[in-house]
Amino acid sequence: MGECDSDRPAAEPDRQARNETPAEQLDRNLSGLLQELRVVQTGVQLPGFLLTLPFQARFATLSMSMREVYLAVVAASIAATVFLTALVAAHRLLFRRRRLETVVRAGHRFALMGLILLGLALTGVAVLIFDTVAGSVAAVIAGVACAASFITVRGAHPLRQRLHPH
Predict the structure, then answer these.
(1) Does the pLDDT value for residue 6 go beyond 70?
(2) In what ranges is there compositional bias, type Basic and acidic residues (predicted)?
C-alpha cells in the first residue's frame, strides 16, 4: 500500500519546517486521518441500505447474476466498513500505551483498503441500479464509468501528484 507522512524520508524536514516533535507530528497525522475518515462516513452507511433491498418487491425480479453482484456489493461494503472503522478500534485499544506511531501507520493502510473496497461497493451499487432501471447494457456502462472515475480520481490523480508534486 502507500505510505503515511511518518513513513517517508521527507517526514524529518517536514517536521523541522513545522517545528514539531515526533509526537506532535503523529498527533497531526492522526488528526488528519480522522478528518479524512469523517468524509467517508456517508459511504460507510451503505451496508445498512443494502440490507433492506431483499425485502423489496422488485428484488425478486433480479437475475441470478445481479443477485451475485448484490452479494458482492454487500461483502465489499461490510469489508469497507470494517477497514474504515478499524482506526477507531485500534486507537481505543492502544490508547495511552505509547503506540501512536503504530496506530497512525496501520490507520493509513486501513483507510486506503477501506476506500478501495468502498469504491468497489459503490460501483456495484451503480451496476445494480442501472440494471434494474435501464437494463444490462446501461449497467455495464455505469459500472465501467464508476470504476474509471474511482480509479482516476482516487488513484491515478493522487499518484500523479505524488510523483510530480509541482
Answers:
(1) no
(2) 1-18
